[in-house]
Amino acid sequence: MEVRISLDQSEPPIGRLTVTSGPQEPGRTESSVPFTGWLGLLRALSDAIGSPNDGGSGS
Amino acid sequence: MAGMSGVSGTSPAATLRGRDDEVDRLGAALDRAVAGRLSVVMIEGEAGIGKTRLLAHALGAARDRDCQVGSAKAEEMEQSRPFGVIAAALGCVPGAEDGRRARIGGLISAHDGPDLAGPTVSSDPGLQFRVVDALCDLVESLAIDRPLVLGLDDLQWADPSSLVTLSALARTGLGLPVALIGCCRPFPRSPAMLRLMESLQHAELQRIEVGQLADRDVRDVVTELVGATPGPGLLAVVAGAAGNPLFVTELLNAIRQDGSLRTTDGHAEVNGSDLPPSLHLTILGRLRSLPEEAIQVLRAGSLLGSMFSITELATILDRSVSELMPAVEAVIASGVLDEQGVLLQFRHDLIREAVYADMPSSLRLALHREAATRLAGVGSPTTRVADQFARGATRGDPEAIDWLTRAAREAESTSPETTAELLQRAVRLMEPSDPRRDVLVVERADTLMLAGRVTEAVASCESLLARGHRREADAPARLRLGAALMVNGRPAEALRALDPVTRSEIGTEEIQALGLSEASFASLWLGDFDEAERAAELALSVAGRCGNHRASTGAMATRSVVACMRGHLSEAIKLSDEAVALADDSPARVGHAFPVYATRGWIQMERDEHEAARRALSTGRQICEELGVRWPLATYQAYLAVERFVVGQWDDAVAELEAGIALAEETGVTYAVKPSLSAQAMIRLYRNDLPGARRAVEAAEAVADRGSRLFDYRVLLAQALLLEADGGTSQAYTALADRWRLCRSVGMAIDYPAVGPDLVRLARAAGDMDLAVEVAAAVDEVAARNQVPSITGAALRCRGLLADDLDAAVRAVDAYAQGHRLLEEAQTCEEAAGLAARRQDKDLARTLMEKAGGIFNRLDASRGVMRVDSALRALGVRRGRHGVRQRPQQGWDSLTPTEGTVAHLVAEGLSNPQIAERLFVSRRTVQTHVAHIFTKLDIASRAQLAAIVTEHRATRLAT
User: Fold this and answer.
1) B925 HSE (CA, 13 A, CB side)
2) Which residues are CB-neighbours of B16 under 8 A, at least 6 positions away?
3) Which among A4, A11, B159, B223 is placed 20 to 30 Å from A31, CA to CA?
4) Across chain B, which distance is largest between two alpha carbons, in Å?
């Protein structure tokens, strides 16, 4: 899985978070969500890769 | 009030740790208050450092000590709400059960509703002063029952009126069982907050600076919160919180929430070794799992401030309350918001700030505007709407500027301080080219004058005139600058500022009339009576044409002072009658913006009509208090004090003078302070406090240095007598003689009788008979056209001194007695006694000298008493019964009669305002008396005073 964060503004951050499935996974997919602020970014990341206590791999 | 437990409901609040010193100091402050001594404490430190927690602890300790406790927290978004935090702490709301609180609440909230037609600026601009007084009275009456502790959190966000009230409480609460405990961050510090801190220095402010927790305390906090001994990894992560307890708590909650905390065998450790992010990020990280709706609630809430109602939230989100309930419940369950009655409150300001700062500024601006529009739509209070518009505004935003201006004008009646701040915000939002900008700056200067912040009014107008400004603002700005400079004791500068206005080069006819009136007043103080007369007559004519009552009253009053200064007292009183009538008849009594009763009182004093003078001055002071025109209060206080000096009530004069000089310094209204300072110098001189007398003369000279000429001669007389006391008789003569010529050329005839006799005496001693004759003739001339006992006395005294005329001197004694001029009567008795002794009429000499001694004794003028005593010895009388009666410096017997009365009234449980009313003096004077009593009895509380009074009564009964 690849996570790409593109920023239109850095502080607080505004941009998009794009998650692309790994090359070895069948049916390569890409999803992208906009976010606003650190809170938005953290929420988008949590949704994409899960929180540490959710057992998310983080990689 | 919010605690310090952090955003998560899962972590219990840690015990207060590492604050032993702070807790001890707060405990000592409370003990001091319980013992009846005012305590003022400011807890200072960065956000999250534990100020609120310390305050809560102190308030708990206050309850344990059976104190009454009131507390409130200032809100960042409510800085425009007059008296917000102080009224909340004292429970002053319109619906309060206690009638006193309800009345104050009613006064303050006159403008809180959208449709309430409250008092207007013109009908009731004195509201702020009445509210401040009412709040001080309330605190005093509560504290007389039981010790009172007020805790005020987040004072950095407090509205200016609350801060003004705190300053007044610190001043009036002397000797009361009251503790004022505030919390504030080191930044931001508003100008109002800086002024408060400066004023609190006089109230022995204790500053408690709360720093970071020591490592061992952090370790203890962590141990308590995680319920296990922290390992090195966990401590290293927590070390990043730099000893800030909120940050420590937040980090632990974040680590726990992330599942990174391991606890084994009573030891806690963290997985991984990530460095801690910022506190903001830590807080935000913990909010990420909240539902989207809850996040919206938090963001909207952060726009409204750290405390807000669900209704307001629903309004700005354009949703119904029931729709919002699930999200609100989720946020409350997460521990981010607390319920405070009907309001929601962020657990800590930093949480609100983190959420607020995390919104991009463009979004924030848009949301504030949206919130403002919706709040306006439902008729929210103007200040609330204005604040939202202002926060959502970019430079030049017309709506924000309009709302701020509207809110400023609405607040003017309750709080000129708030108005000044709101106008400042409006001005800052305006484009430099905005035609209203300069007008608002001028309006703000008016407000600053109303609030008694004269030097700021000067600075504001000067800066406007120094930069490029609109032509139409030039005349009003110059007019305000001239008025402010004048009362600040700088008449020459005032005249320069007013020049183009008076020459009708700029501005309307009304402005010209006002400018001429101000200019005539400035010329008067410069000693240019002809010009003052000319300008006043022109002002009256222009004011008559355009119907400006303020200008005509000022001009007429100035004419009356000119007549008085020229020594035409009958004409002066006639003109003064006309000025008072003009002021009384003016719409909304606007004419009283000029202190007409001060000029009237002064003239009556010169005519020896002391009772009438006192009545006039008290009436004027009362009218100004009612009208909320604060600057003339210093003048009324000054003249009332001088009146006490003149009639020989020196003990009372000392307190009144001190109170008046302090008020003049505080407000910047220093133009009329010279007579006070010279009276103070004379009392100190005669009471043998030569260094104190010198200080008063120097202070008076500093005022004279700024160009004001009136009353110079009285200062000079005090200075000359001081020189004489130091043995410099010829210097005293030179100094007085030099100025005499100037005084003559100006025609300041009213001062001739005041200084003439001493000048005749000094001139004769220096062998300058020509001058002695000239002075005596000049005083004679003034006496001939005024049938005033003390002026007649001065003329007779001069004659006595000039020609060793014993008969004239004895008649002078009677004349002064008739005019109730005690000091002059005693001085003349001494002089007449000297003449009688030279004629070998020892009986008469002794009788006169003993009379002088008796008067000096009544005045407690030890210097005079010693002089008389020595003269009596020379006459062969061994230490007469009027020998130096040294009043002790300390203890009950050191109290003056008035101080004794005040002490008894305090012991009866009367508050300062009640005592003031009973004794017909100002509250400030009572405060000064109380301060003097405390110093003399070496006590610091009213309770101690009550005990001493009781003991004294018992002793007197026993004997």
Assistant:
1) 27
2) B23, B50, B53, B54, B57
3) A11
4) 112
The letter for the amino acid at B615 is R
ipTM for the predicted complex: 0.80
* Distance between A48 CA and the closest CA of chain B, angstroms: 13
* CB–CB contact A51 B359 (8 Å): no
Return the number of other C-beta atoms located less than 10 Å from residue B328's C-beta: 21
pLDDT at B946: 87
If residue B465 lies in a helix (H) or strand (E), which one and from where to where? helix B454-466
Q: CB-CB: which of A14, A42, A52 is closest to B288?
A: A42
B572: Cβ contacts below 8 Å, ≥ 6 apart: B560, B561, B563, B564, B603, B606
CB contacts, 8 Å: B363 with chain A: 36
Phi, psi at B65, each rounded to 5° = -90, 15
Report the distance separating Cα B423 and Cα B451, nearest Å. Answer: 14
Which of A8, A36, A38, A53 best tests the B interface by mutation, with the highest count of B CBs <10 A?
A38
In this prediction the pTM is 0.75
**B323-353 pLDDT tens trace:** 999 999 988 888 888 888 888 998 888 888 8
User: Under an 8 A CB cutoff, do B260 and A46 touch?
Assistant: no
C-alpha–C-alpha distance, residues B890 and B710, integer Å: 38
Q: How far is CA B195 from CA B42, B88, B163, B230, B667, in A?
A: 14, 22, 9, 46, 12
Work out the minimum CA distance from B424 to partner chain A, whole angstroms.
Answer: 29
Kindly list the residues from chain A whose CB atom is less than 8 angstroms away from the CB atom of residue B358: 12, 37-39
Sign of CA dihedral B370, B374, B379, B381: negative
Q: How far apart are CA B779 and CA B792, in angstroms?
A: 9
For residues B27 and B25, what is the distance between their CA atoms, to the nearest angstrom?
Answer: 5
pLDDT score for B137: 87
pLDDT tens figures, B794-839:
999 999 999 999 999 999 999 999 999 999 999 999 999 999 999 9
Beta-carbon count within 10 A of B151 CB: 25
Comparing CB atoms, the residue among A39, A46, A52 nearest residue B358 is A39
Q: Which chain B residues contact residue A42 at CB under 8 A? A: 284-285, 288
What is d(CA B85, CA B72) in angstroms, rounded to the nearest whole number? 6
User: How does DSSP assign B637-687, residue by residue?
Assistant: HHHHHHHHHHTT-HHHHHHHHHHHHHHHHHHT--TT-HHHHHHHHHHHHHT
DSSP classification of residue B154: -
Asked whether A49 and A21 are in contact (CB, 8 A), the reply is no
Two tokens, residue B232: 């090195």
Omega prior to A12 cis, within 30 of 0: yes
Q: Could A43 and B288 be called an inter-chain contact, meaning their C-beta atoms sit closer than 8 Å?
A: yes
Number of alpha carbons in the 13 Å side-chain half-sphere of residue B572: 26
Q: Does B279 touch chain A if contact means CB atoms closer than 8 Å? A: no
Q: How far apart are CA A3 and CA A23, in angstroms?
A: 13
In chain B, what residues touch A37 (CB-CB under 8 Å)?
284, 358-360
Cα–chain center distance at B905: 25
Residue A4 β-bridge partners: A18
Tell me how far apart the terminal alpha carbons of chain A are, to the nearest angstrom: 7
Q: Is the Cβ of B355 closer than 8 Å to some Cβ of chain A?
A: yes
Contacts of A53 in chain B (CB under 8 A): 257-259
pLDDT of residue B61: 95
How many helices (H) and strands (E) chain B has is answered by 46, 11
Backbone angles phi, psi at B432, to 5 degrees: -55, -25
